[in-house]
Every structure is written in C-alpha cells, then in structure tokens.
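Researcher: Let's try something more involved. This one mixes different molecule types, so please make sure each is placed in the same coordinate frame as the others.
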Amino acid sequence: MTFLRWAGTLTALVVLIFTLSSCDITNSSDSDSEPELDLVTIGSVTSGDYTISLESDSMLETGVNQLYWKIEQDGNLISPGSITITPLMDMGDMMHSTPFQQPEVAPEDDRYFSNMAVFIMASGSMGSWSIGFDITLPNQEVLIGEIPVEVNSSWRLTSVRDDEDNIYFITWMHPRQPVTGNNTLAFMVHTRESMMSFPPVVDAELEIYPYMDMGGGSGHSTEFTAPDAQEAGYYEGSINYSMSGTWTTSVSLTAGDVTLPEVMFEYSVQAQ
Amino acid sequence: MKFFISNLLILIWATSAFAQASTFRVLDRSTGDPIIQAHIKSGEETVIATTNTEGYFSINRDDHPVIILTAVGYRAREFVLRPGMEALYMNPDIYRNETGLLVLANREGENNVQAYQQQHHAQNMDQFLDKIDGLSTNKRGAFAWEPVIRGQSDQRMNLMIDGMQVFKACVDKMDPITSYVETSNLSELHIDKSGSDVASSGGGNSSINLITRRAEPESFSMNVSTGYRLPDNYRTLSIAGNTSDRMGRHAVRFSGSYKKADDFISGDGTQINNSQYEKLNLNVSYRHRLPSNHTLEANYITDKAYDVGYPALLMDATKALADIGQLRFNFAPTEKSWRVETIQIYANAIRHTMDDYSRDVENRSVMGGMHMPMFGETFTAGARTNGQATISRHSFEWFLDGYFSQAYGDMEMNSLDPDIEDMFIYNLQDVTTWQGNVGLKHRFMISDDLLLKAEQNVALKNLDTGSERFASFFEGLYNRELDTRPALLISASGNLLWMPFDDWSFSGSTVYSERMGNHMERFGHYIYNYTDGYFYDGNPWLKTEQSFNADLNTTWETDSHSISLSLFHKQYFNYIDGILAENTGNTGLEFKRYANVGDATITGGEFRSLNRLGHLLSIENRVSYLYARNQTLDEPLPLIPPLKGFSTLHLHHGESRLMGELEWAAAQHRIAQTASIEDVTGSFAVLNLTWERDWLNGSLTSILQANNLLDHHYHTHTSIGNIPEAGRSVMVSLSYAF
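Model: All components are placed in one shared frame. Result:
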C-alpha cells in the first residue's frame, strides 16, 4: 500500500513536471513585441516635423557596412514609402561615390529601411563623406537632404589595379570578427566604371591563402574553402581558424583572363 | 567418482553431526565472489565437503578444527576454524591464470607485492609496474611513467583506481593515473593482460586496476618509512596507520607520503636537467559496519605534485592535482536469487598545469621563440554496482556501471617578440564522454578439472563537445556536419582452464572487443605527439576499432618450482592512428589527423620461472617479447619494447634477505619509420643489489639498495626522446611498524 502511494505520488510529480515543461509559459503577446535592433546612431537631421536618422551595427568604417534608416515624427516611427540615397565623398577638387545598394524595407523590422554600403576610403584630411537621401513618405510628402558621416579606417578593405589601371575593391565581409573554429568567409568585389558608378564584379575567381606566423620560424595555414561567386559581387567560402592570434589571408583575384597582384588582409582572431 | 565419494562423505558427516554443524562461505579475496566446488579437505587427501553454487559449506568444527581449501584457479590454503568465522578467503593463483594477473599486497598471501618483485615501499608505482611481465612503461623523465600492457598504451587499455574511471588531464600524457596511488597504499593490483575480464572492467581492453588499501577492523597499527638516495637527493617519508573501535564497527585508515628528488645523473655522469619532482599524497579511508553486517566505506585520495621536470618534453609540470573520492556500500551476503553485492559512487577531478618558463625556448626546434603554458582538467563522476543472480538454477554475476566525464585543455603561445600577438588554442573544449555498461559473467564447472568462464558486456558510449564553436572547427576540418550519436559497443570473452594434473594447468582465452576512439582521438586539437613530432587533430567520425585476442598459457607448478609460458596474438581491425594531413605550406610544423588506418597485429609472449632451492635460495627469471606490426604501412608499430627480461637471485638467511637482479633488454631494430621518428635502440644489461634486514623482531626493517651498480649508460626503447636511465644510485630506507 505504501509502495502504491509512493508510486502514485511519483507519477503525479512526473506528470506535473512534464505538463509544466510542455506549456508555453511565455506571454503570447510577447510575439508581437518590437524586435530590438542593437544599433548605434551615425547621424541624424531634422526636416520639418521629421527626424531622419542613420544607424548601423557599429561606427562606420571602410569596407562593408549595413545602414539603417529611421524616420520619426514627434517620436513615433514612420514607415517610409521609399528611400533613395547617394553616398558621396567630397575631396575638394573632386567627388566620388562608393559601392552601395539602395535601401529596402529591413527584414529585421519593417519600420526601418536598410542597405549595404562599401566605403572605399576613410574620412579625414583627404575628404569627408555624406549620404544624400530622397525619402517619400506614405502621405507622398518628400524629404530631401544629406547626413554627414564619419568613416573610420579598417583592415576589411583593400584594392588592386590591373595593368590597364582598372581598380578592384576587395572587401572582407565575413567573418566581421573572426573567431576560432569554422567561419563563413565572404568577400565583395567591386570595380569602378566612373566616379559615381561602382558595379559589382560577378564572375571573378578568388584564390585565398590563410596563414599564421607564430614567430620563431613557425607558422601554419588552416583548412579553408575558396570563395565562390554567388550574386552581385558576393563571394562565399569558409575558413577554419585553429587558434586565436594574428592571421593573414592573401587574396588573388582573377577577373576575366587577368590575374591581379595578390593582396593581403591582416587581422586578429579571437578565441571563443 | 570423486564427486560421488565426496558427497557420500558429506552425507555421512552431516547425518552424524548435524546438530553441531557450522556454515562457512568461501570467497575470492580479490573480487569477493563465491567460489563454487571448492574442496574442503581434512588433511592432504580426504575431501570432507564441497562448496555449493553459492560458495557455502557446512562442517562440524569440533571434528575438523583445521581444514585445507583447494579450488581450481586458486592457491590451496589452510584454515584454523575459530568461533565467529563466517567467510574464508582464497587468493587467485597468479601462476595458473597468467592472462588475468593478480598481485596481492596482503601479508597473509604469498603473492603479495613485496614477494612478487621483492620491492619495498620506497619504490614508485611506475618503477614497480615496469618490472611486471608483459608490462612496460613509456618514459618522459623520472616521474609518472605511462604504463603499457603488451605494447598497448593509453587509449587501448583501461587504467582504474578501485574500479573507478579516472582520466588524465594532461593532453601530453604527463599524468598517468598510476601516479596517484603509492605502492604503500596499494592493496591489490589487478592486471588483465588479455582483456578477458570484459564483464567487470568493460570493453575487453587490457586493464590495470589499482585496488587501494581500506580501513580494516583491527587494533591500532602504524608504519613509518623513510629513505634517502644518492646522487639525486631523493628523499621520502611516508606514514600509514589504521585503527578501529573495539567492536570493529568503525575503522579508519590514513596514509601520507612526501617525496622529492633533484635531477638524476645518467651512467656517463651527465646531469639530466629538468628531471626533478616533488610529490605529496594523502589518503583517508573510513569503514563502518552496520548491525545488519552491511558495510559502508568512504575513501578519499588527494595527490599534489609540483615542479615535475620532463626532460623528454618541451615543458614541465608546475602543478598536478588530483582529488579522488568514493563511497562504497557492501551488502552482507544473502541467499536471495537476485542480490546486490556492492554499490559504489565516485567522483574525481584532475588538474594539470605546465609551462616552459625554465626552458631555453629561443633555441627550441619546435615552436621556438615562444612560451607555451598549458592547462588541462578532467572531471569524472560515476556509479558501479554488481551482484549475483540465479535463473533456472544457473548462477551468474552481473555488473552495471556508468560514468560521465568532462575534459578541457588549452594552450597559450606567448611569443618572445612583443610585436607578435599572444595566441591561444583550445586542445579540448567542453568535451564530454558518457558510458553505460551491462556485463555478465558465467562460470561452468564442466568437470573436476575443467572450468569454462564466459563473459559478455554491452556498452553504450557517446563523445561530444558542448561548444558549438569548438565543434565547428572539426566541421570545417572535415567539411561535414557534426552529428554525434551514441555507439553500441559489444565485447565478449571465453576462458577455458584445464588442470589435468594438480601441478600442471593449461588455459586459453579469446576476447572480442570494440573500442570507440577516446576524447583525444575524437576531439583533441593541435596536440603535439612527442613520439613522432606531429601535431594531431581529432576525428569525431572515427569508426569503431575492433580487436580479437587469443591467449594460451601453460603452467607447471610444485611447492618449489613454477614455470609458466603465455603466448598471445591480437588482431586489430579499423586500427585508429594518425595519418598525415595535407601540408598547406606550414613552416616548422607538421600535422596528422586520426583515422581508421587499417589493420594491425601484436603477437608475443611471456615466460616466467621461479625455483626455490632450499630455504635459503630462490631464482626467478622473467622474459617477455612483442612483435607488433602495422599491416597497412607494413612496418612495426612504434614504441614496442624489444625482448627483455629480469633474472633475480634471492638469498634468505636469518633476518637478512639479499637480492641480486639482472635487468636486460635486447636491441630493438624493428622501428616505425613512417608513423614515427623513433630510432634503433641498443641492448643493455644492468645489475641491481638489495640487502634487506629485519631488526627488533621484525618491527624495524632496513633496506640498502644499489641500482645500476656498474653505472651503465643506456636508455630503453620506450624512453621518449632517448632520455637515458639513471646511473648508479644508492638508497637507504628504514621502515618501522608498531
């Protein structure tokens, strides 16, 4: 009888625990809560009743950046109808743009627009960057202006020229912060048609070689998969870091029949 | 006929003395198992009783105050039956069961640790193991030699303490767990060379189980030993004591030892730098006997080693810490058809810290110009239980055990060049192993002189890493997604013992075993192998390695002479070893990955003879040989000892004992040149002398020992980096017991 009582109690406890663990105890209304984008503000301007803010994952730097556009009216977010932008570097005696895409509704939060921009040089004594915008609101009101931005230098961008002085911009896209273990490796490759046109190079071949110089005459490479062309100048492979420390990865670009001189990325891999 | 007569005698005896009969149980001292069909003799010839399937027999103590017990596979033993006695223990016969060597340290048996090798407490465990037939050690210096059974080391053998799984923390194998038990704290040493003991130790691997001494229900006793050796200034002090209350319900045993040595000097007078060590070992054991005669035991070992030099390696151990604890509940014998005998739970943590701060790293050929501090840690917890069952009149033993282990290892690389960023690597990150075993052991007494033993074991084992990032490294290395699944591992053995004559036995065993790659073979990363100079990466997709072992043994033994010969052959399938990784332009570094490389074999044998020439003189000879081959590479396996042996002359006179020992080995020309960077090793022979004398009626013992008397300069084939052995040394030891 005692055994049956214990068995009954135990069964009840198991059922209770199972029931509790099976229940979705989260508030269903949470699913409607605002997705949180962890962004920093790059710059903002006011136009009439509206505040146009440019935000990003981190401060802007040479190479690939993801930009987020936010329109507010009296503190409330407004989803714009469309946004057209023009990044521009003013170097005094000349101006040029940079590889970029036009903003579209951000998949993370449909009240934002987002786009990719590859800044090909840093802000500084050579010149300054600004991004012009042309925003059409749902009420057909149009906001036009520009936001000055500061672009820092980084290791994630390099360029190389062929014999005919065509320049190719090779951008290290992923991993943004390399960590030990296997990483998706992605590059973007653009060229320059004019000072305002930087089309992607879609049919290039990239040969890479990662290496760690450990000093004292020791060094080693690691497993990797050479990046393949995907779309719109995007090339994807993988790289497998065996340890943290300073690594280099050389990239040899073949565009058409021309193999360009090798370029080198040097960066730090973190242990994780 | 014998069976009929014995039963008739029992019947007559039982009829006449039923009212005064006492019941006893005959048990195996090493395992506690009942011994069936043991003969109870009154005098040399007359069998008066036989134990039943539970090991019990009844006898009139008044008629037979002294009996002799004999059983197949056990040494005959004489007992004086006293009131209150219930269990009678017999010791397995080491000469007649060579594949399952058992060395006992209890003073009452002849086959104790001291008698087996004429060793004393001042000797390290690794030195002791190195001299046992069929065993050798891979050496990296003067400390923590890695035991090897018949050429199988590390992952191909089980090293246990009291049946517990304890995993080394050092990825460079600097800390074999044998270093955590002192010889003075060793009760029994179970060596299963063939792996036939699959039910209890699991897996069918060769195994060494170090059984520690436990608290005994005895009056207060204590032993103090100390020793000093030149020229390495080795000094040691050990204390051990045991006490219990008057009723023997509570018993405590404690022991502690401290030892420290400076660099040793080889036979050519060279001081071997970085061969020093310092070590402290403490052990506490408590035993409580309940009114129901169940007993509860608690045991804790802590071992701390500091400043341990490894001249063969790139670095030294600054700290090696072990904490090993267990609780054990022993059930009193019952008559139930299904009974539990022991339940044991345990946990242990091993931590190992090493660095190369005392080394000249600037001029080092491997990974020069940087310091490489390393840390390793394992934590293991498990439970074991065993018992007996009877189904349809068939009795068998059952074993259940399971454990969980977690391993971690890392290495920093700090360049001497300040412009080079510090590097860091996970050798093992959150690598977990869990395993559950079910084992069954059956004994069939086919006839009076034929015993068949059959064992089976089924294990479920899994290895994984809890770090997705660490797992991604292997996914990138092998370009496939990691999906670890438990593996079902089956092992089985059959052992036949035939004793056509009282002094001559034949035995044969076969073992089938399946082995999953261990945590280093599956998830080790960037681990330097000193035997071949390659850095190794694990392979989580290794197939199960299978092996088949066949053993034959014959032993002839009389009271004065014993000759034993064992031959074995082991065939590996899907042998796990390192294969060269593609060289992607590395500088100064070469890499290998673990893989199933094909087949391999190890064949060999051991010969042993012991001749007692009167009461004063005895001679012992031991010879062992291994022939191992990687069949895929068509070359010898690495680190296989050559033909080697020991010849020992014992002289006993009064209170003195003199022992002369010749240790020798032939040259080893069979070397692995593809899979390893080992070289040919020359032959050697060294002479050791020991003089031992008892004083004060045996309470005080003095030992004078001179090793390598002729100061020969040599190294063994299994000395990694060809580090030479110690030259001539002289040691004085004193041991006082009260």
